[in-house]
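Box 3.1 A note on notation
Throughout this textbook, protein chains are presented in two layers. The first layer is the amino acid sequence; the second is a token string describing backbone geometry. Keep the layers aligned when reading.
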Amino acid sequence: MRIHSLQHVPFEDLGNIKVLAKHRGHGVSRTLLFRQEPLPRLSDFDWLIIMGGPMNVYEEEKYPWLTEEKKFIAGAIARQKTLLGVCLGAQLIADVLGARVYQNAHKEIGWHPVRLTPDGEESRLWGSLSPRFIAFHWHGDTFDIPGGAIRTAGSEGCANQAFEYKGRVVGLQFHLESTMGSIRRLIQNCGNELVNGPYIQQPEEMLAPGENWREIRGRLESFLDGMERGTG
């Protein structure tokens, strides 16, 4: 399988997705949009993974490449490619599918629980995951669920955490791919967002040793297994 990623900033990459993909023998390539690299042909990949970033989907004037990226995402959906959007990536997919993207009532930063909806529990993409799990978060915006999609997860701080569209297009507001290194880079580059808030943790909480690191990788692997089964 050929996996291609769209990366918006140097400090938000595939993380453990790349590790697991390489271990399974999949090809992995990427476009660094912040370096103005050209987008690939739609025939060059099987899966498209759209990563996060601190920009907003509506900031085309500040980030002109967002316009072409949205057209590219729309083309990939039309060609029935498998798509996974993470955080900003999920918001971009939602926007392309006609849903509203806007500021959430709360910023959600750190390790917080996510709960699958009844539709999520029944989805073949999520079937091997427990209904409630801890994931890493770093976002201030949220999205409405696109028409024709199903809402598959939510949290106390953000009602719409995940959606699934036509079985091949998935948006995740939260992060399963995170590593200690990627979280350190987020803290270094976006630490100004760590203000007081009911769903905002501080660096020492986010980087504390514990079960989160092992569990998040296991949940990522289970989720990718579900995507492969569901879209293969």
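The domain at 2-231 is CATH 3.40.50.880 (Rossmann fold). The chain has one domain: 2-231.
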